[in-house]
TrEMBL record, chain B:
Annotated AAA+ ATPase domain residues: 57-207
Species, as recorded: Acetobacter pasteurianus subsp. pasteurianus
InterPro entries per the UniProt record, alphabetical: AAA+_ATPase, P-loop_NTPase, TniB
UniProt xrefs under SUPFAM superfamilies: P-loop containing nucleoside triphosphate hydrolases
One Pfam family per UniProt: TniB
Protein name: AAA+ ATPase domain-containing protein
Keyword Disulfide bond annotated: no
Assigned keywords, A-Z: Plasmid
Length: 333, 307
């Protein structure tokens, strides 16, 4: 500790990358000293929650201590956050990544680092490489073990947490195909990106850039996507039972009532399909006429053009009218 | 009172003399550096140690002196002059000189933990299970480009068993060889004994002593410069032989005691309104509270030489 009980300044501090998540930078910082990010967070005065939990919590006093320790401005530390505590369910608990982005970082002699956008369920496709984000380790094929972002020898390294050896990122991803016959082309990628950007803005309370059906001052874009997620999950009869984050549950007076399914809780391929469907049905569908095809039964014979009407027809009868309400709402602000 | 009347003060101190009593007292209590010949000599040697090229066999230094002679202040000043901040691919504060405090027990893990703490690396709370690894220490020290490791209170090595002492000295030798860094040990005169059990290491250390003050011209200059830096509004006639004898006698020639006595007398002079230091100012017993000549090794107190 330095003077007046403040932590002393650290000699080695990596600069945060533009658009890097707070937890990712904290992991890289802790790696310099072979420490765990949680240890370093605790040392700076953050409550014991785990460094990844801090991605959506602003703690000005601890941010100030960390700014003193690292020489960064408090503003830089604040802008690395990717959501607000109320939107905690939109933040992923496990690592996802774009293989090409990580490769580029490694080719530049850098460490693997996580983009802020990857932390939330709002982002499913890499906007630069038009690839669905990966979540399974190419080495052990497991999800959520921390693979690819492990601290070793003073840096974050692309290592497998299960097998302990280096991950080879130079091949193609084993399974890059989306369910329901959906494919990503330039047009749909742009629309998905537009929706992802607006979802990220909605998560931090910023105004949206595009117009989407049903959005109003009272009804946020995130709420509409939560509803579309639920009705889609009901239709495919897949209702996962995610473990809600403990600190989020403690902050709710009735967490069961506050709980909503979000794309962050789903496998990225399924989340991608839901965001793709949403991007089509919530935007001007004439723009996509005969461009996006849907094959929910995956017969690969009768792909039909994806329109709001075909989407509603596909929905389970119990939720069809709900779906109809969503797609027929006027374009919002 | 106009500024012209404070012509006895150096120009940078004159504005301070215009301040109120409490502000001036705060200034007197603050740390300051006063050059003196012994300190210059030590600083020159330290710089020699610093500029030597990295090699397998670096020249080391053992700086010994009685407690309160200003050894730590001296090496801190040396450290401050060689800290660099770089900004490529992140922030890196280079630490060519690391000043660390010797841990209370001379074991490797505690030494490494203290060494990392000295350059600002957070201590791990659960020390027993996660003591810093050698590899971490070597890598971090290499990254901050350490050239000199200064170990303050090296005499704490003597607190360990003979085996612990041997192992610790081996560790120092290994660290010096591995990183090609110079070591500077700081301690009381008994520290010499700490190095006796490792011939190889002892041969690499140059002994340098920071002696206690004796009544002479150097001491007189030191006291004059020190008093000159205090914002007292009247000139202080302190160059009398009797006063110098009193200061050396009652403090045993220890820098800390001398500075403390002068500070207290100066504060008293401000509070009483005399605004000057002379022989009478040091005759008050409260100036000397807790200041004693040091006890020498045999257990005898140094003969008091009151003026």
């Amino acid at each position: 500790m330095g003077k007046e009980g403040t932590p002393s300044s650290l000699p080695l501090v990596p600069f945060p990358h533009r658009a890097e998540a707070f937890s990712s930078w904290l992991s890289r910082l802790a790696a310099r000293y072979d420490l765990h990010a949680d240890h370093l967070a605790l040392h700076a005065g953050y409550p014991l929650r785990g460094a990844r939990e801090l991605d959506c919590y602003l703690l000005p006093q601890a941010d100030c201590a960390l700014a003193l320790m690292t020489g960064l401005s408090q503003r830089s530390i604040r802008t690395m956050r990717c959501g607000m505590p109320q939107r905690r369910l939109w933040v992923r608990d496990h690592h996802v990544w774009c293989r090409e982005c990580v490769r580029e970082a490694l080719l530049e002699g850098d460490e693997p680092w996580e983009r802020r956008s990857w932390r939330t369920g709002a982002t499913v496709i890499c906007s630069r490489h038009r690839r669905v984000l990966e979540e399974a380790c190419p080495r052990c094929n497991k999800i959520g073990k921390g693979c690819l972002f492990l601290s070793d020898k003073g840096r974050v390294q692309p290592l497998c947490a299960v097998k302990g050896d280096k991950i080879n990122l130079w091949g193609d991803a084993s399974d890059d195909q989306l369910p329901w016959g959906l494919t990503i082309d330039r047009t749909i990628s742009r629309c998905v990106n537009a929706l992802s950007i607006d979802l990220c803005r909605s998560l931090v309370g910023q105004t949206l850039r595009a117009q989407w059906r049903g959005v109003s001052r009272e009804r946020r874009l995130t709420t509409i996507i939560e509803e579309l997620t639920l009705i889609t999950l009901i239709t495919i009869d897949y209702l996962p039972r995610p473990q809600p984050p403990l600190y989020w549950m403690l902050e709710q007076s009735d967490w069961k009532a506050a709980f909503h399914y979000t794309p962050a809780m789903l496998p990225t391929s399924l989340a991608t399909c839901i965001i793709m469907l949403a991007s089509v049905v919530l935007s001007d569908h004439q723009f996509f006429e005969d461009r996006v095809f849907l094959d929910p039964s995956e017969y690969q014979v009768a792909c039909e053009p994806l329109t709001p009407e075909t989407y509603v027809m596909w929905l389970h009868p119990k939720v069809r009218s709900w779906g109809q309400q969503i797609i027929s709402a006027p374009f919002g602000v | 009172m106009c500024r012209a009347e404070w012509s006895h003060l150096p120009e940078d101190v004159r504005p301070l003399a215009a301040l109120g009593n409490e502000e001036r007292i705060r200034h007197i209590r603050a740390k300051r550096w006063v050059d003196y010949p012994h300190a210059d000599r030590v600083m020159r040697r330290l710089n020699e140690i610093y500029v030597q090229p990295r090699s397998e066999r670096m020249e080391n230094m053992l700086l010994i002196g009685q407690s309160g002679m200003g050894k730590t202040t001296l090496v801190r000043k040396f450290e401050r002059t060689h800290t660099v901040r770089l900004g490529n691919n992140g922030t890196c504060r280079l630490h060519p000189i690391v000043v660390m405090l010797m841990p209370h027990d001379p074991t490797g893990p505690r030494f490494f933990s203290q060494l990392l703490k000295a350059i600002g690396v957070p201590a791990i709370d659960n020390f027993e299970t996660t003591a810093p690894r050698e590899s971490t220490v070597l890598r971090v020290l290499a990254e901050v480009q350490v050239k000199v490791i200064v170990i303050d209170e090296l005499n704490s090595v003597l607190a360990g068993t003979a085996r612990q002492q041997r192992l610790f000295l081996q560790l120092l030798r290994w660290l010096s060889n591995e990183l090609r860094v110079a070591l500077v040990g700081i301690g009381v005169p008994e520290t010499r004994h700490a190095l006796l059990s490792d011939d190889q290491l002892r041969n690499r250390f140059m002994n340098l002593e920071l002696p206690v003050w004796e009544n002479g011209q150097d001491f007189s200059h030191f006291v004059t410069r020190l008093i000159w830096s205090l914002p007292l509004r009247e000139p202080s006639p302190v160059d009398s032989r009797r006063l110098m004898q009193m200061l050396v006698g009652r403090t045993g020639g220890i820098t800390l005691g001398t500075c403390k006595a002068i500070e207290r007398a100066a504060i008293r002079a401000i509070r009483s309104g005399t605004e000057r230091l002379d022989y009478q100012a040091f005759e008050h017993e409260e100036v000397w509270d807790g200041i004693e000549a040091p006890v020498i090794m045999g257990g005898h107190r140094r003969k008091s030489r009151r003026g």
